[in-house]
Amino acid sequence: MVKRSVSGDVFEQIAAEVLGGELPAGSTLPSERQLAEALGVSRPAVREALQRLAAAGLVSVRQGEATTVLDYRRSAGLEVLPRLLLRGDTIDPAVARSILEARLHNGPKIAELAAARVRARGGAEAQIDGELALLHESVDSLVAESDPLTQQRIALEFWDHVLDLADSIAFRLMYSMLRAAYEPALAALAPIMSAEVGNGGAYRDLAAAIAAGEPERAAESARALLGPATTALIHALDGA
């Protein structure tokens, strides 16, 4: 287990209170000295934590002024998603729903971009062939696997390869954060996701559409793959 630093502990505590609403937007934090005394840590540890909070878009730190809590919905990035999704051992239904909606809308576009790049090829033919080989290998591994939890992990690797083919840094960074939020809940989601990750034929269809360089077919295949489980999960969340 990796030991967290003192400043890391301070960061996590304040971040949890900001994201949880205990420290609402517009409120001010005590001074560094007051925080250090209240938390029983050094002022340098508090200062480092505040700098991290500012970098995450959770607070505004200005020299000579009080540290102000920001509206993270407007100032923070996707890196806060994992903290928003899981509050202790509890999944936040609203956050989970938004992640599922993003997954359903982004997946087909990523598949479309991947197929378009395969069709264009250009001077990267060898690289694309290698990426396609990895894509097909992940489908083979998925079909050979029977454990739903392991299948989910392989499915995530499949989408990693699709993203490599799409060659979009914006979608890559978005996916990385969505995946970081999603992975801690894999075991809880396994019963509902089993139908999707167990549908090897749908993954083969999507891989074939991308390999054939057919963007519209790839987008439709991705939609057909992702849609049923997304709908089922949203219904489950609405009934929770």
Automatic annotation (TrEMBL):
SMART domains: HTH_GNTR
CDD domains: WHTH_GntR
Transcription regulation listed as a keyword: yes
Gene3D superfamilies in UniProt: GntR ligand-binding domain-like, Winged helix-like DNA-binding domain superfamily/Winged helix DNA-binding domain
Keyword Transcription regulation: yes
Any Pfam family the entry gives: GntR
Domain HTH gntR-type: 4-72
Keywords carried by this UniProt record: DNA-binding, Transcription, Transcription regulation
InterPro entries (UniProt xref): TF_FadR/GntR_C (IPR008920), Tscrpt_reg_HTH_GntR (IPR000524), WH-like_DNA-bd_sf (IPR036388), WH_DNA-bd_sf (IPR036390)
PANTHER family from the UniProt entry: GLUCONATE OPERON TRANSCRIPTIONAL REPRESSOR, TRANSCRIPTIONAL REGULATOR, GNTR FAMILY
Name of this chain's protein: GntR family transcriptional regulator
